[in-house]
Automatic annotation (TrEMBL):
One Gene Ontology biological process: isopentenyl diphosphate biosynthetic process, mevalonate pathway
Gene3D superfamilies tied to this protein: 3.30.230.10, GHMP kinase, C-terminal domain
Single Gene Ontology MF annotation: diphosphomevalonate decarboxylase activity
Diphosphomevalonate decarboxylase-like N-terminal domain boundaries: 9-164
UniProt keywords, alphabetically: ATP-binding, Lipid biosynthesis, Lipid metabolism, Lyase, Nucleotide-binding
Record organism: Latilactobacillus fuchuensis
Source organism, top-level taxon: Bacteria
EC class (word): lyase
Family: Belongs to the diphosphomevalonate decarboxylase family.
Keyword Lipid biosynthesis: yes
Protein name stated in the entry: diphosphomevalonate decarboxylase
Amino acid sequence: MGQSATARAHTNIALIKYWGKQNPELIIPYNSSLSMTLDHFYTDTTVTFSTELTADQILFNQAPADAATNIKMSQFLDLIRQQAHFDLHARIETINHVPNAAGLASSASGYAALAAAASKAAGLDLDRRTLSRLARRGSGSATRSIYGGFVEWQRGTNDTDSFAVPLQETVDWDIQMIAIVLNDREKAVASRAGMANVVATSPYYPSWVQTAEAAMPKMRAAIIKKDINLVGQLAEQSAMQMHATTLSATPPFTYFEPETLQAIQVVQQLRQQGISCYYTMDAGPNVKVICTSQETPQILTALGRYFKPEQLLVAKPGPGITVQQ
């Protein structure tokens, strides 16, 4: 067998959402976004290029990947093969510590880990900005998982200027998230298809882009001030504005489930009681609660009336990519 490398990448949850591509092939977004990398959810990927292989072999949690995943990941590897100037096939072994396709950013950690492991195994020594650009070609949100803490994806206009940059990698203030895993089933409308439908048909989409861009400097300032209430308010607004575009698409669709609304209602009730907590959601039913560690026990108690303990996962700001050869 040939050269091998292993990488670990953590998921990130966008506080100002990315939603919609102006260039679907290069995955160039219409708006910039800002996220927090999480310590609890991550992907470990090992890539080995070998002269003995006649096709790429891809294993997810020790099981062969489906045909669509095989094609997509092989095409992503082609980008690395082109840069490395060879045509060797690879064996990819991925262990996902994230429910797949359930709105918990499994593709973000997955493609960030794949980009880092495959490029290192191919003999490429990419800096983090170049790695961020590469990861973006697999999944837009993966561009942010190269870094830890708070991360900004600058939308750019082309392949060279659309990448993530760290805003605050060492988070020295009290902020975390409670992920409410309502279900880990694959969602009915994939993020990629949902975005494309919204961009093409929602009359509100231009307003989404404008409001998302206007929220970016406000979120940066809130993070620098360590103002969890302002961070939470802006994140909540961004999430609901994003989900409003799905309801206005043709045909309309939603990622909400009954339990989603129940979780949101609990958060709103807690806030009325003076607890600093705010909700956010990606393209899936699961709710993430932004809060402090100090108030987490009270929030978990309230959520525990409706959800099982194993559905409530506490995550803190997490690290960026790590690679070993």
